[in-house]
Design a protein that fits this description.
The protein is α+β, with helices and mostly antiparallel strands and about 450 residues long. The chain is built from 10 helices and 18 strands. It has an 8-stranded antiparallel sheet, sandwiched between helices. A hairpin with a 5-residue loop joins strand 2 and strand 3.
C-alpha cells in the first residue's frame, strides 16, 4: 500500500528513492517507441525528479542521428510519451509530458538512460480523504506570509509548551481552506465542494502575490471521494529563497485588515470562474515580473513596462473603451470606412486609409493610464515613471552606470512596481492598504480609496 506521508517527506528532504521492478515507456501509436525494464525514481540536486532507467527490452528504435529524441515533434500531442511503473510494494506510478534522448550506443538493450520528469502521480485510496466531496492538499518550502487568524500550541519531548500564530483558516465559496506556516514547510489544504484546478491556481497566485515568492509545490493531492491522486512534482531549487517586494505586509491593523486580504482569494476564485482572461492575464504578468526582478536591471525594466501594458490591453482598455463608447462617433466612423471602400484608388491605398480611420478613437496604453489617473486609481507620477521606463526599454542607449543613474532607475522601477500592483489588485477589488515603493530600503503603507474600474 502507498504511504503518502513517507513519500511526501522524502520529497521534502530531496531524498526520494523509489525502486520500480517493472517500467514501461511508450508512445500510443503504431510504430511508436516501446521500452520495458526497471529502475529507481530519485530527485537530483536541483530538485528534478528523474528515473534511472535500465532498459531490458525494446522494439526497433528509430535512428534519427547520433541522438534520437522522443517525441521527435514536441508539439504533436499524438507523439506524447507515457510512463507506467510498478514499485516493490506493488503500487502503480504514472507520468506524462516528458522527453528522452537515446544515443547511438544505446539502441540495443540492455542499456541505461536517465529520464527526467516534471511529475509522477499515484492513485491514493486513503480512508482519511473520503469524508469530503472534494479535497486538495499541497506543501511548499516557501513561506506563505498570509495573515494568521489561529494560534497553535506545540509540546516538546521535555514537556515544554510554546504557542504561535501560524495558521490561517478561510471559507471560500464551498471550500474550507487552511494554510499553516510550519518551521520547515508550508501546508495548504482545502475540503468541501469546489473545482480543484481553479482553487489550486488561485491559491498559488494568492500565496505568491502575498509573499513575493514563487510557490513551488513538491507534492499535491487532489480529487474527490475515492478518486484521489498523489502528485510528486519537480521543483527548481535555485528559485527558492528568492523574493520580490510584496504589495503589503503579512501583519497590519485597521482599515479592514485582515479581512480585506482574505477577500483577495475569494475574488480570485470568482474571477477565475467568471472572467478567466482577467485571472490568466494578471497571474501570467505577475510571474513574468517575478522572474524579471530576479534577473538583471535591464530585463526588469523591459518586463515591468511590458507587463503593465499587457494588463491594460487584456483587462483595462476593453473596460475603459466600453465605458467611454461614443456611439454617434462610432457610427460616423463606420460610414466613412464604407465610403472609403467605394472610392476609385488602388487597393493598397484604400486599405491604408481604412486602417488609419479604424484607429480613430482607439485607447492605447498611455491614454488608458491617463484615464486611470483621472479616475483616481493611479497617480500622475506613476504614469510618468511607466512612460519613462517603457521609452528607455524601447529605445536603449548606453549610459554610464553612476550613482545618480542608479537612483533614478530605482525611483522609476519602484513607482512602476506600485502601478503594476495597483492594477492587479484592482482586478480583485482589493480595498485595503498597499505599499508605495520609492524610498530606498523602505516603503510607505498607504490606503487609497477603492476605484471601481471593471464594474
Amino acid at each position: 500500500m502507498i504511504n503518502s506521508e513517507k513519500l511526501i517527506d522524502a520529497m521534502h528532504e530531496g531524498k526520494l528513492d523509489l525502486h520500480c521492478v517493472d517500467v514501461k515507456i511508450r508512445q500510443k501509436f503504431e510504430g511508436g517507441l516501446n521500452l520495458q525494464g526497471y529502475g529507481v525514481l530519485k530527485v537530483n540536486q536541483v530538485g528534478t525528479i528523474y528515473l534511472e532507467f535500465i532498459c531490458k527490452e525494446a522494439d526497433d528504435i528509430p535512428a534519427q542521428s547520433f541522438y534520437s529524441e522522443f517525441p521527435e515533434d514536441p508539439f504533436d500531442s499524438a507523439q506524447k510519451l507515457y510512463l507506467e511503473a510498478v514499485t516493490l510494494d506493488g503500487d502503480s506510478i504514472f507520468a506524462e509530458e516528458f522527453s528522452i534522448k537515446i544515443n547511438v550506443f544505446n539502441r540495443r538493450p540492455p542499456f541505461r538512460i536517465p529520464v527526467f520528469l516534471h511529475e509522477i502521480y499515484l492513485m491514493d485510496s486513503s480512508e482519511y480523504y473520503k469524508n469530503t466531496e472534494n479535497y486538495l492538499y499541497f506543501e511548499l518550502l516557501e513561506k506563505a506570509q498570509i495573515p494568521a487568524n489561529k494560534m497553535n500550541k506545540t509540546t516538546s519531548t521535555y514537556g515544554e509548551e510554546s504557542s504561535s500564530w501560524d495558521e490561517t483558516e478561510l471559507v471560500v465559496e464551498g471550500a474550507k481552506v487552511t494554510i499553516i506556516d510550519k518551521k520547515d514547510r508550508t501546508m495548504v489544504k482545502a475540503s468541501g465542494k469546489f473545482d480543484t484546478e481553479d482553487l489550486y491556481s488561485a491559491l498559488l497566485f494568492y500565496i505568491g502575490l502575498s509573499s513575493g515568492g514563487m510557490p513551488q509545490p513538491y507534492c499535491l493531492i487532489k480529487g474527490s471521494g475515492e478518486s484521489l491522486a498523489l502528485h510528486l512534482k519537480s521543483t527548481h531549487k535555485p528559485l527558492r529563497n528568492k523574493n520580490i517586494p510584496p504589495p503589503f505586509p503579512s501583519a497590519s491593523s485597521g482599515n479592514g485588515w485582515p479581512s480585506c486580504h482574505y477577500e483577495i482569494l475569494r475574488s480570485m476564485l470568482k474571477i477565475k470562474t467568471s472572467k478567466p482572461l482577467y485571472f490568466d492575464a494578471s497571474y501570467s504578468q505577475w510571474m513574468r515580473v517575478w522572474h524579471a526582478f530576479n534577473s538583471v536591471n535591464n530585463i526588469t525594466i523591459l518586463t515591468l513596462g511590458v507587463a503593465v501594458e499587457g494588463l491594460l490591453n487584456d483587462i483595462f482598455i476593453p473596460a475603459l473603451k466600453s465605458d467611454s463608447l461614443d456611439e454617434p462617433f462610432e457610427e460616423s466612423k463606420k460610414q466613412l470606412i464604407a465610403e472609403l471602400g467605394e472610392i476609385e484608388a488602388p487597393d493598397d491605398q484604400k486599405k491604408s486609409l481604412i486602417t488609419h480611420v479604424e484607429r480613430w478613437g482607439n485607447i492605447h496604453a498611455g491614454k488608458a493610464l491617463s484615464l486611470l489617473v483621472g479616475k483616481g486609481l493611479i497617480l500622475e507620477g506613476e504614469k510618468f515613471a511607466w512612460n519613462e521606463l517603457r521609452n528607455s526599454a524601447a529605445h536603449p542607449k548606453f549610459r554610464e552606470n553612476t550613482e545618480a543613474r542608479q537612483e533614478k532607475e530605482h525611483k522609476r522601477i519602484s513607482a512602476c512596481l506600485t502601478l503594476f500592483y495597483r492594477l492587479i489588485l484592482n482586478v480583485y477589488s482589493y480595498d485595503g492598504g498597499m505599499y508605495e515603493f520609492g524610498k530606498v530600503r523602505s516603503a510607505e503603507f498607504v490606503k487609497r480609496d477603492f476605484v471601481n474600474i471593471l464594474g
